[in-house]
Amino acid sequence: GRLRTLINDSVEFKLDTDVLLGDGTGENMSGIDSYASEFNATNTDAPVQAIESANYVDLILAMQAQIYTLGKENKFAPNTVILNYMDWFSLVLSSKDADANYLDYRNVNMGTAMINGMTVITSPDVPANTCYVLDSTKGELIINQSYEVSIAYENATDWENDLVAMKGSIRANLLVETPNTNAFMKCSDVAAGIESINAVTPA
């Protein structure tokens, strides 16, 4: 009953974390972070610079533009933004103009936040000052073994001590084919990313 529920929740949380941050070592899958390229404003194939008064939303749009361009404007269609909620709050939801008027850059569709057609998802697994932009159709979560619970009554000294060992497991992998890795992009330093696309004000 309750133990099975707790184990099930723990496995689901672990799966969610690995889909985003898995490093491909040991029993960890290779997650979005492993496949994603780092945003570079000076990328020679898709440079993004000199944006007047650049902000967080501009950075996200710049990442979208680079993915779209690297996909030759037809292969990749970025549709998802994954970010830290406190960054979203401080840099978007609570941002104001010089007259203290709120500047909320969202397009809200049935309660879902959107930026230029991309769904905004916040996750506790995303570190502050980090964000991801991606075309989610270019990755496939493959379940090799569905969720199951195993119970052992003779693990080490469990029998002697009237203990039972329970283990929840699932075997899954995030498949991103090599030609599609450019559909995933991250910015590991949002503040630096915004500065890199900001127009330099003449002295």
Structural class: alpha+beta
SS field, number of helical segments = 5
Question: How much is the radius of gyration in Å?
Answer: 21 Å
Order of neighbouring strands in the sheet with most strands: 1-9-6-2-5-4-3
Number of strands: 9
Outline the biggest β-sheet: 7 strands, mixed
Task: Indicate the low-confidence ranges by residue numbers.
Answer: none
Range of helix content? 25-40%
Principal-axes geometry comes out as elongated
Order of helices and strands: HHEHEHEEEEEEEH
Arithmetic mean pLDDT: 88
> CA-to-CA gap between the ends?
68 Å
Instruction: Give the amount of beta strand, in percent.
Output: 15-25%
Overview of the structural elements:
A hairpin with a 2-residue loop joins β3 and β4 (112-115). This protein has five helices and nine strands. α3 packs across α5 (190-197). The strands form two sheets. Strands 1-9-6-2-5-4-3 form a seven-stranded mixed sheet. Helix content is 28%, strand content 25%. With 203 residues, the chain is α+β, with helices and mostly antiparallel strands. The longest helix has 20 residues, at 2-21.
Structural topology:
Blueprint lengths: L1 H20 L10 H4 L1 E2 L17 H15 L9 E4 L1 H9 L13 E3 L2 E4 L2 E5 L8 E4 L5 E13 L12 E11 L8 E4 L2 H8 L6
Parallel strand pairs: 1-9, 2-5
Antiparallel strand pairs: 2-6, 3-4, 4-5, 6-9, 7-8
Helix pairs in contact: 3-5
